[in-house]
Amino acid sequence: MTKTMQKLRDIQKKLYAFQYAANLIDFDSQAVAPSEGYPGRGEALEVLSGLKYEIIADPALPEMLQQARKDPLNEQQAAEVRELQRMYDEISKIPAEEYAAFVKLTTESVNAWEKAKAASDFSVFAPYLEKIVDYRRRTAAYFDPDKKPYDVWLDQYEKGLSMVQCDQFFAQLKAKIQPLVQAIVQKGAGASCDFLNNTWPVEGQKKLSEAVMTIMGVDHGHCVLGESEHPFTQELYKGDVRITTHYYENDLLSNLYSVIHECGHALYELHMADRLQYTCLSGGASMSLHESQSRLCENYLGRSLPFIRNLWPVLQQHFPQQLEHVTPEEFYKAANQCQPSLIRTEADEVTYCLHIMVRYELEKRLLDGSLTVAELPKAWNAMMKELLGVDVPDDARGVLQDIHWAEGSFGYFPSYALGTAYGAQILAEMYKTLDVNGLLEAGDWGPINDWLEKKIWQYGKEKTPDQLLYSACGAEFDPQIYTDYLVKKYSAIYDLS
Ligand SMILES: [Zn+2]
Question: What are the residues facing 245 on neighbouring strands?
């Protein structure tokens, strides 16, 4: 390795250490820390992000990167240089004080959001959201003054993504999904789901979670399951990944599918190539790619009949009375009910992307200035009525349900829908060479995980998201594969002609 490359490795190791600390603090804040401990956390994060800023925005870095490019680089080294350049370009454009102040602002705004949500009172959160929207509109100009702010942030989460592409993608989804939802609603309840109204003791659910992790091949020595209000995954490095879930005694499916979803994220992190360790290439290729893996596990594998058949003895062992008169086929139909509802994270597979469209349209308008923060709750409720046909009873179950805007994430929501569609395309490709259903029914996730590791997981950020999707699927992204999958699956479940 050349001297310059060695220096760049040292820089990456420092960045890794900052990221490790920040991720640990984040995990702690959501899964462990007391609710009123946030001011000290905000101070610490402000200092840490200031130090991280100094490393990335170091004026000597561009020259070092240019020097590195003069030497022969292997594929990984070239990707490290590309990624460091991207980080430099991204961060050095924002003045240091503004960068650190924003980290502090989001810590405060998350706390305000939690209180606002608990009291279902948007006015508690509104002043913080105003500051965040203002920051996002203002700082977008540092990146590209000629670009619309929302395009700048979309591009940050998914390189090359724009409103034009999103508009097209969501229009394509809407044209297929809305008629499908309408047909399902008209047809009425497909299966009897009364058994879901049982009580599901948390002890049994905890054992089920552990069993699911084992079936999916998640290594307990390198991944722990904790609890938090909203399930999430936090990776410290490939040898220490943490996932969380939330147990509800009156809802078995919420925990079951949260665990499967987060295991999908965890498997991605746990199977990164060792050589990417401690470099800026570790971690998923993009938010969409990450979400493609979690939703592939949750919906395409976890909500399939073969998987449920395999899980059946475990389910019956822990919930013998609750499932006494239920068959795996009935459970499958219950786990795949389609019903327009209020909460994104609890939404079924068919209506899920409609929830994303609500957020996409609204954040687009907040950033172009055509919608004010004060008008947001009303606009939210109107869009929920228009797209999902539901009436929002209060802001806690409406505009305040998600943490993303409080964290300053604008342009993030489309990744969920994109990732879902990527996942369908990746699954269709996997079907060509693997007997996926046979493996699921046998509880043999090994070949599935090997396939995903070989095609996706091992690469981290070494390949760009489009390169990765293209190399895995041998074709460009095609959202129709996803809508075709939905129509086929749900036409069968609801017996639509
Ligand atoms: Zn996820």
Answer: 227
Mean per-residue pLDDT pooled into runs of 10, the chain (497 residues): 94 96 94 89 88 92 96 95 93 86 90 95 98 95 93 92 97 97 86 89 98 97 94 95 97 96 98 96 95 97 98 98 96 94 94 98 98 98 97 98 95 96 97 98 98 97 93 96 97 90
231 CA from centroid of ligand 1 (Å): 9
Per the listing, tokens 């946030």 go with 38
Q: Residue 207 is encoded by which pair of tokens?
A: 């054992």
Distance (angstroms) between ligand 1 centre and the Cα of 72 equals: 38
414 touches 161 (CB < 8 A): yes
Give the 3-state secondary structure of residue 226.
strand
Amino acid code (one letter) for 59 = P
Calculate how far, in angstroms, residue 26's C-alpha sits from the geometric centre of ligand 1.
16
pLDDT at position 191: 65
Beta bridge partners of 234: 242
DSSP-assigned letter for residue 227: E
For residue 75, give every residue at least 6 positions away whose Cβ sits within 8 Å of its Cβ, in sequence order, or none: 462
**Rounded to the nearest whole angstrom, what is the distance from the C-alpha of residue 254 to the centroid of ligand 1?**
14
Distance CA 285, CA 24 (A): 21
**266-298 burial, b if ≥16 CB within 10 A, otherwise e?**
bbbbbbbbeebebbbbbbbbbbbbbbbbbbbbb
Tokens found for residue 220:
């307990």
In angstroms, how far is CA 31 from the centroid of its own chain? 18
Using the mean position of ligand 1's atoms as its centre, give its distance from the Cα of residue 22 in Å: 19
Q: What is the structure's pLDDT at 401?
A: 96
Tell how far the Cα of 259 is from the centroid of ligand 1, in angstroms.
10
| CA–CA distance, 434 with 436 (Å, rounded to integer) | 5
Tokens 């050349």 — which residue? 2
How many whole angstroms from 114 Cα to the centroid of ligand 1? 20
3-state helix, strand, coil in the chain (%, to 5): 65, 5, 30
Burial of 171 (0-12, 13-18, 19+ CB in 10 A): exposed
DSSP 42-95: HHHHHHHHHHHHHHHT-TTHHHHHHHHHHS---HHHHHHHHHHHHHHHHHHTS-
Pull the structure tokens for residue 82. Answer: 């590309």
Please report the pLDDT score of residue 42 as a whole number: 85
Residues bordering ligand 1, an ion, CB closer than 5 Å: 294
* Active-site amino acid positions: 262
Give the position of tokens 């079907």. 431
Q: How far apart are CA 467 and CA 80, in angstroms?
A: 16
User: Which domains occur in the chain, in start order?
Assistant: 3-146 (no CATH), 163-493 (1.10.1370.30)
For residue 320, the SS3 value is: coil
399 close to 377: Cβ distance less than 8 angstroms: yes
